[in-house]
């Protein structure tokens, strides 16, 4: 083990501090100059780009098309949907002046785009032939946060927001559910290696204006919950507010049913919190900007390091050569460990002499193994694949071990001090949610006993997942 | 020829109206609700995505890395560079209230990010080892426009902005020039099929805060100029304002030299104006979301149309099947023509009987050719390639034909009524620029007689390109 620990707070001692330290030392992000904003540095943005690509591909596979709606929304638009404006008003950033003059109507910076999208869906949708209409956009949004925290809750964040309109309630629900499972869960589990619990939010936790919010919750290293994405059935609330209607094949005018769904840069925060350890970040190979770093220990190893890098690149891996032999080797090794690069290959004079390379697997035990030069590419390719799976298995086992089945709200509060609790939702109810809230604990989601999604909150035998959360 | 012309104003009669009509009818974009903003619809965004991908790949090939800086910038940041604040102040959108309160310091929505990037370059750059530092971001910016026009000049637009810091003036200039040629010109010429004249801006037209602005200018269908991208040497202006300095290898503290460079959704406007005709848009195959549309004329052709589409997709083309056989065929054909899809394959009962498909090349003459089914894929692949080249050759010839060499400012003003003029810059000077401006004509750029970039405005024998512009 290396000296990394001295540069980071340990998770056990001060988890929030550890989180901040990792972000700073791994050069993922900085605080922006306006309170609560974030500068995403190249290494953090590189992770986001790969994640975005994986998400975008799956979104397009559902048939949704990308578009772009304006940043600025007339204040009056938000007021058309009563619950929506109530939910978002306290968080709005308002442009009152532009071009040297006071605006006639103030414009808000979008906190989310249901209202402006609704206005255009209304124009674009005429007949049943135009449905379903499936849109997505990659954009920045602004929500003024009281307690900002890098990646998890920033005043401005990057996200994708999907907006769809359908002819029937059933079609809308099926699409919102498809996004939840085939897009979001697939990316989280198979790309980010993060196990998630999926379920329905209680009325209290629902998106402002939705009739149903479905969520994916991840467990952080300190046993809290992190909402990783949400998919909403909006019923006919926005269709009514913005007159999104269509001529049916029978010739009658009908209101559409809409959905919206979003996932954000917060997922990078999830990646840090789910996989990180006391030595720093651990990045799943699927989103690692650098999957393998080849370190030349001394100058005479640089040419061989480059040769290895070329071979690994040709095998389809993302590889970086560290040839900064004028800097201490130990510091460089610690730096790559901090950045959570999955595989580190060290190449020194002794390795060259023995025709081997030293392979360190950051996502396993960080033990050093000498691998024969001829076997190197095959070994590394196999390790990358295996370690992606290992990370998921490890996180899944840890999550399972920290979920306690309880019977009462009091027991749930106690269990939530160190992990999650499940309990019968009948034992909670709206009153129970108030009591949980007093201890900063919330119902994260509701599931049927078989793990599937309930159609409403009043189904019998629902299981509530309860936890503290970020 | 089809009936398209009736749905669009003709270019000769009313070019600005034609431009608006194409954007609306081809479903590229809509006006946003806040004046001057834009909704980019899926078809327009699809073009932008392909363009973005081509640009992004080339930017990364220069060694620049993507990052993300905040939307909101403290007002005081802009004031640190005197020319910069003077240039941008009239266009700023200002957030005065957020989270239900008045802000202590108003924040502006970024009109460009030199100032906020400067603040972080200053933190991140310590030693000569950290240079060059090469960053890029894809983002939205807001500049309050008095006369907004979709794609060309919108209050909010999408762009990439690059920001780099270098140890020497020479290195900064070389990098800004590399961006101009290897990234921007390459994309414009070889992806968008748009010939561009590259040169140096006069002092009057320079970016606020730059010591040198290099530009790429395209000629629109009505003979005006459209600035398609710019690359700036910022000298040490921002380095001084934000203290971007480094410890040299000799141990002295030195100010860095910075550059910035941007290209925007305006390029889509350029694509429309350079290639469009009275029948609508014409999209270069390299950025066509649909390169080939296969139209089933009647229901019995749908299966065969899908078979053709599968075969073309397997050959690497982007293909759409139009199976809306319940709608009039003529209207569907006109619609694809309007959208400028490069190749239209029509498949009717007679085609099926003769084992042929009817191929219409939108980028050529739109004549209909019967192609034997067995030759179809090979023919279409070859046509796509040839038509990308054809579009460029056509635009290049048209541009050359509309540039007139003149000797005096008066002649230049006359020539600019219908095209561009070149004249000796000695015959213009600052006074001449004032006189041109009175006729809404500007010096678009300066070139050396051999077409290369001047190092300053005072070199002898410089050639000025003069035109009206968007």
TrEMBL record, chains A, B:
<dbReference type="InterPro" id="IPR004499">
    <property type="entry name" value="Pro-tRNA-ligase_IIa_arc-type"/>
</dbReference>
<comment type="function">
    <text>Catalyzes the attachment of proline to tRNA(Pro) in a two-step reaction: proline is first activated by ATP to form Pro-AMP and then transferred to the acceptor end of tRNA(Pro).</text>
</comment>
<keyword id="KW-0547">Nucleotide-binding</keyword>
<dbReference type="GO" id="GO:0005737">
    <property type="term" value="C:cytoplasm"/>
</dbReference>
<keyword id="KW-0436">Ligase</keyword>
<dbReference type="GO" id="GO:0004827">
    <property type="term" value="F:proline-tRNA ligase activity"/>
</dbReference>
<dbReference type="GO" id="GO:0005524">
    <property type="term" value="F:ATP binding"/>
</dbReference>
<feature type="domain" description="Aminoacyl-transfer RNA synthetases class-II family profile">
    <location>
        <begin position="35"/>
        <end position="284"/>
    </location>
</feature>
<keyword id="KW-0030">Aminoacyl-tRNA synthetase</keyword>
<dbReference type="GO" id="GO:0017101">
    <property type="term" value="C:aminoacyl-tRNA synthetase multienzyme complex"/>
</dbReference>
<dbReference type="InterPro" id="IPR004154">
    <property type="entry name" value="Anticodon-bd"/>
</dbReference>
<keyword id="KW-0067">ATP-binding</keyword>
<dbReference type="InterPro" id="IPR006195">
    <property type="entry name" value="aa-tRNA-synth_II"/>
</dbReference>
<dbReference type="Pfam" id="PF03129">
    <property type="entry name" value="HGTP_anticodon"/>
</dbReference>
<comment type="subunit">
    <text>Homodimer.</text>
</comment>
<dbReference type="InterPro" id="IPR045864">
    <property type="entry name" value="aa-tRNA-synth_II/BPL/LPL"/>
</dbReference>
<protein>
    <recommendedName>
        <fullName>Proline--tRNA ligase</fullName>
        <ecNumber>6.1.1.15</ecNumber>
    </recommendedName>
</protein>
<comment type="similarity">
    <text>Belongs to the class-II aminoacyl-tRNA synthetase family. ProS type 3 subfamily.</text>
</comment>
<keyword id="KW-0648">Protein biosynthesis</keyword>
<dbReference type="Pfam" id="PF00587">
    <property type="entry name" value="tRNA-synt_2b"/>
</dbReference>
<dbReference type="InterPro" id="IPR002314">
    <property type="entry name" value="aa-tRNA-synt_IIb"/>
</dbReference>
<dbReference type="InterPro" id="IPR033721">
    <property type="entry name" value="ProRS_core_arch_euk"/>
</dbReference>
<dbReference type="InterPro" id="IPR036621">
    <property type="entry name" value="Anticodon-bd_dom_sf"/>
</dbReference>
<dbReference type="InterPro" id="IPR002316">
    <property type="entry name" value="Pro-tRNA-ligase_IIa"/>
</dbReference>
<dbReference type="GO" id="GO:0006433">
    <property type="term" value="P:prolyl-tRNA aminoacylation"/>
</dbReference>
<keyword id="KW-0963">Cytoplasm</keyword>
């Amino acid at each position: 083990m290396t000296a990394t620990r001295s540069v980071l707070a340990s998770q056990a001692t001060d988890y929030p501090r550890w989180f901040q330290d990792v972000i700073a030392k791994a050069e993922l992000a900085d605080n922006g100059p306006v309170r609560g904003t974030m500068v995403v540095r190249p290494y953090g943005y590189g992770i986001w780009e790969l994640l975005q690509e994986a998400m975008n591909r799956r979104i397009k596979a559902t048939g949704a098309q990308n578009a772009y709606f304006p940043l600025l929304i007339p204040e009056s638009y938000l007021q058309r949907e009563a619950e929506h404006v109530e939910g978002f008003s306290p968080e709005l950033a308002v442009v009152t002046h532009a071009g040297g003059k006071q605006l006639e109507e103030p414009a808000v910076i979008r906190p989310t785009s249901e209202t402006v999208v609704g206005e255009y869906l209304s124009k674009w949708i005429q007949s049943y032939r135009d449905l379903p209409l499936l849109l997505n956009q990659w954009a920045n949004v602004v929500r003024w946060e009281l307690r900002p925290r890098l990646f998890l809750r920033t005043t401005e964040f990057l996200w994708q927001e999907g907006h769809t309109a359908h002819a029937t309630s059933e079609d809308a629900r099926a699409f919102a559910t498809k996004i939840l499972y085939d897009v979001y869960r697939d990316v989280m589990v198979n790309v980010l290696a993060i196990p998630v619990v999926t379920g329905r939010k209680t009325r209290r936790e629902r998106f402002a204006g939705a009739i149903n919010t479905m969520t994916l919750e991840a467990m952080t290293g300190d046993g809290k919950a992190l909402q990783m994405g949400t998919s909403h059935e909006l019923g006919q609330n926005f269709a009514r507010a913005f007159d999104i209607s269509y001529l049916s094949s029978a010739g009658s005018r009908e209101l559409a049913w809409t959905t919206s769904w979003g996932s954000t840069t917060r997922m990078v925060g999830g990646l840090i919190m789910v996989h990180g350890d006391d030595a720093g970040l651990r990045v799943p190979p699927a989103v690692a900007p650098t999957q393998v770093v080849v370190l030349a220990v001394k100058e005479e190893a640089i040419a061989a390091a480059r040769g290895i890098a070329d071979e690994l690149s040709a095998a389809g891996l993302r590889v970086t050569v560290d040839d900064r032999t004028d800097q201490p080797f130990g510091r460089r090794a610690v730096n790559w460990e901090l950045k959570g690069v999955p595989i580190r290959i060290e190449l020194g004079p002794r390795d060259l002499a023995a025709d081997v390379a030293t392979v360190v697997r950051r996502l396993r035990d960080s033990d050093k193994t000498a691998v024969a030069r001829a076997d190197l590419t095959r070994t590394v390719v196999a390790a990358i694949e295996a370690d992606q799976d290992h990370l998921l298995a490890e996180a899944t086992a840890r999550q399972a071990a920290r979920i306690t089945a309880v019977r009462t709200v009091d027991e749930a509060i106690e269990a939530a001090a160190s992990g999650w609790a499940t309990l019968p939702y009948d034992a909670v109810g709206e009153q129970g949610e108030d009591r949980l809230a007093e201890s900063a604990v919330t119902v994260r989601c509701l599931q049927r006993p078989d793990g599937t999604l309930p159609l409403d909150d009043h189904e019998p035998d629902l299981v509530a997942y309860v936890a503290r959360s970020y």
